[in-house]
């Protein structure tokens, strides 16, 4: 079994925030796989799907971003999931909007959700870093991540979430580089790469 975790803040007020793109990605995977309705468990909302012959637990922590690791730790211990089989989807300031990179371990770059996950389960989980761009000034970061995506950004956000969902089976198989490449190609094909978005 693998654990796919979307990071975000629960509630309508946060639903469209840049900080919630991890939730958006997991919701897109759930829709694409016709997942059962999310239900409350492990201090979060969970559902379960099958991808590439693997059982995948989908988790959206309800603890707010800076306590996300509590929910992740609870689910991991209950199902005895290896840390290397945890995949965390999160917003990434240091990547251009629409760029996606997958990595295992590494630093948390000031991301409070990642800090919490690392504190509860260790650092050797996989991260799907979803680029949201940087406001250009460190002092603006807090308001930037907690602001909604602009209407002009809707096309790339939606296209990216659809592409993440369509290629999630590659993550389940551990084919991280192929996953990245497929998404990059899909965004370029949609006119959102190179001379478009990035």
From TrEMBL:
> What's the EC number here?
3.1.1.29
A Pfam family matched in the record = Pept_tRNA_hydro
Q: Which InterPro entries match?
A: Pept_tRNA_hydro, Pept_tRNA_hydro_CS, Pept_tRNA_hydro_sf
From the record, give the transmembrane residue ranges: none
CDD domains hit by this protein: PTH
Q: What chemistry does it catalyse, as a reaction equation? A: an N-acyl-L-alpha-aminoacyl-tRNA + H2O = an N-acyl-L-amino acid + a tRNA + H(+)
Question: Which keywords fit this entry according to its UniProt record?
Answer: Cytoplasm, Hydrolase, RNA-binding, tRNA-binding
Give the site residues for Discriminates between blocked and unblocked aminoacyl-tRNA: 9
Can you name one GO molecular function term for this protein? peptidyl-tRNA hydrolase activity
| Residues of the active site | 19 (proton acceptor)
Chain positions of site Stabilizes the basic form of H active site to accept a proton? 91
Where is this protein found?
A: Cytoplasm
Which residues are recorded as binding tRNA?
14, 64, 66, 112
According to its UniProt entry, the function of this protein is described as: Hydrolyzes ribosome-free peptidyl-tRNAs (with 1 or more amino acids incorporated), which drop off the ribosome during protein synthesis, or as a result of ribosome stalling. Catalyzes the release of premature peptidyl moieties from peptidyl-tRNA molecules trapped in stalled 50S ribosomal subunits, and thus maintains levels of free tRNAs and 50S ribosomes.
The text of the family note is:
Belongs to the PTH family.
Quote the subunit structure annotation. Monomer.
What is this protein's name? Peptidyl-tRNA hydrolase
Species whose genome carries this gene: Methylocapsa polymorpha
Gene name of this polypeptide: pth
């Amino acid at each position: 079994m693998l654990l796919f975790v979307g990071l975000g803040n629960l509630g309508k007020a946060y639903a469209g925030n840049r900080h919630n793109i991890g939730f958006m990605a997991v919701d897109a995977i759930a829709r694409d796989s016709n997942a059962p309705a999310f239900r409350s468990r492990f201090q979060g909302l969970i559902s379960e799907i099958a991808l590439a012959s693997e059982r995948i637990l989908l988790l959206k922590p309800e603890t707010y971003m800076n306590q996300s690791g509590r929910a992740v730790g609870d689910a991991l211990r209950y199902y005895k999931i290896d840390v290397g089989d945890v995949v965390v989807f999160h917003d990434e300031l240091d990547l251009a909007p629409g760029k996606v990179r997958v990595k295992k371990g590494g630093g948390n770059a000031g991301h409070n959700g990642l800090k919490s996950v690392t504190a509860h389960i260790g650092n050797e989980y996989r991260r799907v870093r979803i680029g949201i761009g940087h406001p250009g000034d460190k002092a603006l970061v807090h308001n930037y991540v907690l602001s909604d995506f602009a209407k002009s950004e809707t096309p790339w956000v939606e296209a990216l979430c659809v592409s993440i969902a369509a290629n999630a089976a590659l993550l389940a198989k551990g084919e991280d580089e192929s996953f990245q490449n497929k998404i990059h190609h899909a965004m370029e094909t949609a006119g959102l790469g190179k001379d478009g978005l990035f």
